[in-house]
Amino acid sequence: MGMGRYVTVEQRLPGSRVYGRHALGKETFFATIKREFREKFDEDTDDGDRSGWCPFLARSAGTASFVCIIHHERPRFCRRYRCCVMRITGPDGRAAGTVKGRRDLVASDPGLRDLWERTITPLFIAEEREWLSEVKSRLIAAGYGVTVYD
Ligand code: SF4
Description:
Elements: E1 7-13, E2 17-22, E3 27-32, H1 38-47, E4 57-59, E5 65-68, H2 76-80, E6 86-89, E7 95-99, E8 105-107, H3 110-120, H4 128-141, E9 145-149
Parallel strand pairs: 5-9
Antiparallel strand pairs: 1-2, 2-3, 4-5, 6-7, 6-9, 7-8
This protein binds iron/sulfur cluster (SF4).
């Protein structure tokens, strides 16, 4: 999530609560870290090096998906603006494209754009998780790497 670098933890509070700031949204917020992510969150924030990632973005156990660990209390800006639902890498592991909130592909890879036009655009699946799952399967079958953000 490219917007992640604008989100910071201002203060750790008792009970796995945090006081955070979203610089772009010019807002502060309180949130509670989901229980299953508390230990990992402690490790990550102690480590300090998250290379521009949002401190509340974590890999979902046993999957290739990422989740927001304060989803129900995420900043207003995040609720309004969903910047990226999927990242796609080519067979060489390099970034090939991203999928924005309205199912729009942004890609510099012409092969990926062509594949998208031929096999993804005609898909008619209303439910978003189902659509993401089908898109992921098709891209992987074509040799791409896929990371889905929840
Ligand atoms: S939705 Fe959650 S993980 Fe994503 S930028 Fe906002 S706070 Fe961070």
